[in-house]
TrEMBL record:
It comes from Pseudomonas parafulva. Residues 179-293 form the NodB homology domain. The lineage of its organism: Bacteria, Pseudomonadati, Pseudomonadota, Gammaproteobacteria, Pseudomonadales. It comes from the Bacteria. Keywords: Signal. Pfam families: Polysacc_deac_1 (PF01522). This is Polysaccharide deacetylase.
Length: 375
């Protein structure tokens, strides 16, 4: 009985620790305007910033027990959660300042907010006077941001035992925060896919659109593609794109004893096979890496490249729902590194939807080589 009881306790503990099955997404059709010009992008951006700020403000009112229950955890690292909250507030304030610049063209969601403190006050009462035109968007947006915030704070609550993209471990790591306003970098992880498959379709589509992205490849999959085809075919596959590394296998590099060999082996493979496409960036699977790994990364002349907009195209979301999630987060953060998975079939249609719905919005796409070679 004791064995059975222990097993049940363990299973219950795992259930409590389990993450939500379906990530947050928001039907962009609920927003009543098209993003047909930069000013309308700013209107939608101001709205999403204030909607998220409202949820963030409400979250700060929870005590530790209520927060743990909200996140589905037995206990939380409250210090890390507060650090992440503070960083989120800072980004919201920076983004709202940028989004206010077009208020003379369209005053929707423009308030007399001139400081972080005033943004917090505005967030506390947001959604009481937005007008009938936006009423169909208000509650779905609040639900999206509450779920999205839970996703982020759950990762913060597990720090430092489980590292993730939610917090940098050193100033040398990059996550897109250094980009200019309205500038986004397309990145793809977990590839390449099988020959003549999703990666081929995606890179061909990007070239047709005269766009590039950074593809973080697994050394083992790259080796399989080369063995099954040819080096020339591999170079054609990534022509015009950038290629970083994700290790030899898609597994956490935080506890793996061979993590250094995984990185150096895959780095050597990419540098030898794709010298024109190689960029010195490492994307840790699941965002998990070692806190003491910076010295090794410096010796390898690599930088950890994280992301701050996750498409979640490897989840139960459809391709369009994944793209709608990305667009909502682009409006919220106004800049950043977007992560898709090129070995999965949702990435290409999601990217296509995203490009079609932002074509006139005034955003820009960061050149992958310029980013990859930057500091």
């Amino acid at each position: 009985m004791r064995v059975v009881s222990a097993l049940l306790t363990g299973l219950l503990s795992l259930a409590v620790q389990a993450a939500p099955s379906t990530p947050a997404s928001l039907d962009r059709g609920l927003w009543p305007e098209q993003l047909d010009n930069p000013a309308l992008f700013d209107v939608a951006s101001r709205a999403e910033i204030l909607s998220f700020a409202r949820v963030l403000h409400e979250n700060e009112l929870l005590d530790e027990n209520a927060l743990a229950a909200r996140l589905g955890l037995r206990q939380v690292n409250l210090q890390k959660i507060r650090q992440v909250r503070a960083r989120l507030w800072q980004r919201l304030w920076q983004g709202y300042q940028q989004a206010q610049r077009s208020c003379e063209q369209d005053a929707s969601f423009c308030y007399a907010v001139t400081s972080m403190a005033e943004l917090r006050l505005q967030a506390a009462t947001f959604a009481t006077d937005v007008g009938e035109f936006y009423t169909g968007w208000i509650e779905p947006s609040r639900q999206f941001h509450e779920q999205y915030l839970n996703e982020q704070l759950r990762k913060a609550a597990l720090l430092p035992q489980t590292s993730s993209e939610v917090q940098r471990l050193s100033a040398a790591e990059r996550n897109g925060d250094e980009l200019n306003d309205r500038l986004f970098l397309l990145t793809f992880a977990g590839g390449p896919g099988a020959a003549a498959g999703t990666t081929d379709e995606l890179t061909a589509y990007l070239r047709k659109q005269k766009l590039d992205g950074t593809f973080f490849v697994l050394g083992s999959r790259l080796q399989q593609r080369r063995d099954g085809e040819s080096l020339a075919a591999l170079r054609r596959l990534y022509a015009g794109q950038c290629v970083g590394i994700q290790g030899w296998e898609y597994r956490s590099h935080a506890q793996w004893t061979d993590w250094q060999a995984s990185i150096s082996r895959s780095q050597a493979r990419v540098r030898a096979d794709l010298p024109e496409q190689y960029v010195p960036l490492f994307r840790p699977p699941y965002g998990q890496r070692r806190a003491d790994g910076q010295a090794f990364m410096q010796r390898q002349q690599l930088q950890v490249s994280l992301w701050d907009i996750d498409a979640q195209d490897d989840s139960g979301l459809s391709a369009q729902a994944s793209a709608e999630r990305v667009l909502t987060l682009m409006l919220l953060w106004r800049k950043g590194v977007i992560q898709f998975h090129d070995a999965l079939p949702k990435a290409r249609p999601a990217v296509q939807w995203l490009l079609e719905h932002t074509a006139q919005s005034g955003i820009g796409w960061q050149d992958c080589r310029e980013y990859g070679q930057g500091e």
